[in-house]
Specification:
It is built from five helices and six strands. By secondary structure, it is of the alpha+beta class.
């Protein structure tokens, strides 16, 4: 199992919208690095759902339920999407400033490549994020 983080603008598709839907296809990715990460996702992988914009925090977890296939919102076959399903809401959202201050994230693409909308997380990074989601560390 691998760990991933996907970013969304909450005014476009928020955690609340996702929890109401329960499942969605993650589309609209138009960056080759992010696309390649989506192609590497496997069924059962865990996905951190992250709000960008003014929120800048991880909200909860999803799981990949369908691996990469052509994004139905565009005819260009180069772009893919994956299906994700609601897995867990965090007790506390995890703000970006906590992760930036954590040495485990010093080399993370989340910190180093801020505009990347889909990215991998190492197990250590994921475990730290889960710790913060259970404690009122903010």
């Amino acid at each position: 199992m691998k760990y991933w983080l996907v970013k969304t603008e909450p005014d476009v598709y928020s955690w609340d919208m996702f929890t109401a839907d329960g499942q969605t296809f993650w589309d609209g990715v138009r960056n080759y690095s992010a696309r390649n990460y989506m192609q590497a996702m496997s069924k059962g992988d865990v996905v951190v759902f992250y709000h960008t914009g003014t929120d800048k925090c991880a909200m909860g977890l999803a799981k990949v339920v369908k691996e990469a296939y052509q994004d139905p919102t565009i005819q260009d076959e180069a772009w893919v999407c994956v299906d994700i399903k609601l897995y867990k809401k965090f007790k506390y959202p995890v703000p970006l400033h906590l992760l930036k201050a954590d040495p485990a994230y010093s080399q993370s693409p989340l910190i180093r490549i801020g505009r990347l909308s889909v990215l991998p997380l190492r197990e250590e990074e994921f475990n730290r994020l889960m710790y913060y989601s259970e404690t009122q560390a903010a």
